[in-house]
Amino acid sequence: GAVVSQHPSRVICKSGTSVKIECRSLDFQATTMFWYRQFPKKSLMLMATSNEGSKATYEQGVEKDKFLINHASLTLSTLTVTSAHPEDSSFYICSATNPVGAFFGQGTRLTVV
Amino acid sequence: GENVEQHPSTLSVQEGDSAVIKCTYSDSASNYFPWYKQELGKGPQLIIDIRSNVGEKKDQRIAVTLNKTAKHFSLHITETQPEDSAVYFCAAGNFGNEKLTFGTGTRLTIIP
Prior knowledge:
By secondary structure, chain A is mostly beta strands. Chain A is 0% helix and 54% strand. In chain A, strands 2, 4, 5, 6, 9, 10 and 11 form a 7-stranded mixed sheet that branches. In chain A, strands 1-3-8-7 form a 4-stranded antiparallel sheet, with no helix packed on it.
C-alpha cells in the first residue's frame, strides 16, 4: 500500500491564482520531506527540503516566495504555488523516508491556464 | 555536491531476456542507492535499494549490485515481462533525512 500520499493528483487553475498540494506520510512520522519537480521526459529536480517546525530549505534558483512550503505536523507538508503562471505547469512530487526506504507520493499534475 | 550519471537512456529488450541499467556517483559519502520505477503520470515507485554496507541485494527478478571503490551501481532485471516497461531512475544520497540526487532515467521497453 501507499506509504506517502499526495493530493490532489491533478489540478487545473487560472493564471494568478494559488494552488496548494498536500503530502502526507502514512503510518510514520517524517521530520523531513522533500519536494521535487519533474518536466516531461526529464528526471526529478529537488526544489526544497521541508523541515517540521522550521523553515524550508530551498535549492538554488527556486523562489521561496513563489513556492511556499509549510510542514506543520510530523505527517503533513504542503506546497503552495502562489500567483501561478503557465510556466509553473509541471508534475510535482513529494517524498519522505521511513526506516525501510525513501518513498514518493503519487505526484500532482499542475496545469495553469 | 553529488552527481549521478545513468546509462543507457533507452533500452529495448526481448521479453524473457535480462536488462541491465548502470549508474555512477561522485560523492564517496553517499551510502544509500535506491532504484525507482516510474510509469506514465505516476510518482516513482521504490523497487529495490542497497546501502553501502553490502555489495549485492536481490528480490525475485530484480537485483542491484554496488561497487563502492568504483562508485557505481547497477540494476539487473531478469526474465523481463511486458509490465516491466517503464522509466527507471537510480538515485544516490545518505539514508535518513538527506536529499537524493537522481540519474537522468532509462526508458525500458520490453518487446513481446
